[in-house]
Amino acid sequence: MSSGSKTFISGNEAIAAGVRLVRPHVIAAYPITPQTTVIERLAEMVADGTLSAEYLHVESEHSALSACIGGSAVGARTFTASSSQGLLYMVECMHYASGGRFPVVMMNANRSVALPWNIYGDQRDSLSLLDSGWIQVYAEDAQESLDLVIQAYAVAEHPDVLTPVMVNLDGFVLTHTYELVNVPDQVDVDDFLPPFQTTNKMDPDRPMSLGFTAGPQHNQAFKQLQHLAMLSAERVIRETEERFGQLFGRNYPGLVDAFLCEDAEYVIVTLGSVAGTVRPVVERLRAMGERVGLLRIRYMRPFPEHEIRAALAGVKSVGVLEKDISFGYEGTVFTNVNSALTRTGAKAPRLLNFIGGLGGKDISVTDIEALFARLQASDEGETVTFV
Amino acid sequence: MIEVRWHGRGGQGAFTAARLLGVAVVLFENRYALAFPSFGPERRGAPVLGFTRIDDHKVADRSLVTGCDVVAVLDDTLLDSSVLQGLRTGGLFLVNTSHATLPINPPDDIRTILIDATSLAMRYLGRPITNTAMLGALAASSDVLKIQSLIDAVRREMKGASAEKNVALAEAAYAAVRGQAT
Amino acid sequence: MNHPVRNASFKPPTRLEDYLVGTAFPSGHLVEINAAWRSERPAIDSERCTNCLICWLLCPDGVIRKTGDGRLEIDYDYCKGCGICARECRFDVIRMEKEGL
Question: How much is the ipTM here?
Answer without folding.
Answer: 0.95
